[in-house]
Task: inverse folding
């Protein structure tokens, strides 16, 4: 008679929206083998980016869609890495802040609309859910999450449908002056009400959202056109090139010229 392997990881509980796993290792650290059941579940979902991190913020598992999104070929390429290896500086910092809140407070991130960068430099809007993973003693030992790319405004989740017209307007008027009051008027809200609701739903202020939409467009043009940077910046709503360079470097961790050279040489 075969005896059960007492070192095998166990999915203990899903009650009260808690995921509880008993790690197989003696040190209690979460490893890839502990979450294999999730990896198998998400492996064939090509439109869902699945990932698991340990309590140090390092990736320990993901599915094929995540590897493709990051332009890696095998799981060993990402194990042990953090967001700073995948994403622009500002995005990596914000993801890490989110993760620290989850790990320290057990506060899940649900239906978050955010922006991340794929392996080809495109900034992509995604809907993200992240939950803490607990051990049987109640300690948080990792994070499990999924992100679903949103390719069109029409594909926004139901609770964000009210903002569809706002997002479409922003994208269509990047070169123009966009006033928050005008956006609030579209939704028939006061400016303060609109700001609060927008920040609650998207996790960023309307001004930050507009800035990222402009940076997204500028990054796209830097990779795919030979326009002078000053003209390109103006087309994306940046009338001051020095301000554009400052914001671009803060977000991407490099100047627009450096960014363009990387993609020309890649």
Result:
């Amino acid at each position: 008679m075969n005896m059960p392997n007492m070192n095998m990881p166990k999915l203990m509980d899903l009650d009260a929206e808690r995921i509880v796993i008993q790690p197989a290792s003696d040190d209690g650290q979460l490893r890839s083998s502990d979450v294999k059941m999730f990896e198998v579940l998400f492996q064939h979902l090509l439109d869902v980016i699945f990932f698991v991190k340990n309590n140090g913020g390092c990736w320990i598992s993901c599915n094929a869609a995540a590897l493709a999104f990051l332009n890696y070929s095998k799981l060993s390429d990402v194990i042990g890495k953090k967001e700073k290896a995948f994403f622009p500086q500002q995005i990596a910092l914000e993801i890490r802040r989110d993760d620290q809140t989850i790990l320290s407070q057990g506060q899940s991130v649900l239906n978050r609309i955010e922006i991340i960068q794929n392996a080809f430099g495109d900034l992509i809007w995604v809907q993200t859910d992240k939950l803490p993973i607990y051990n049987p003693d109640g300690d948080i030992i990792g994070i499990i999450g999924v992100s679903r790319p949103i390719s069109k405004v029409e594909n926004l989740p139901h609770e964000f449908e009210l903002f569809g017209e706002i997002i479409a307007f922003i994208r269509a008027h990047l070169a123009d002056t966009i006033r928050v009051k005008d956006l609030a008027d579209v939704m028939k809200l006061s400016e303060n009400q609109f700001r609060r609701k927008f920040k609650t739903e998207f996790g960023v202020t309307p001004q930050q959202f507009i800035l990222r939409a402009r940076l997204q467009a500028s990054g796209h043009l830097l990779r795919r056109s030979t326009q002078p940077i000053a003209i390109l910046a103006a087309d994306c709503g940046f009338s001051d090139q020095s301000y554009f360079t400052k914001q671009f470097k803060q977000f991407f961790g490099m100047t627009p010229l450096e960014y363009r050279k990387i993609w020309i040489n890649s």
Summary: DSSP finds ten helices and seven strands in the chain. The mean pLDDT is 85. The longest strand covers residues 123-134. Strands lie at 10-13, 19-22, 49-54, 59-62, 109-117, 123-134, 140-149.
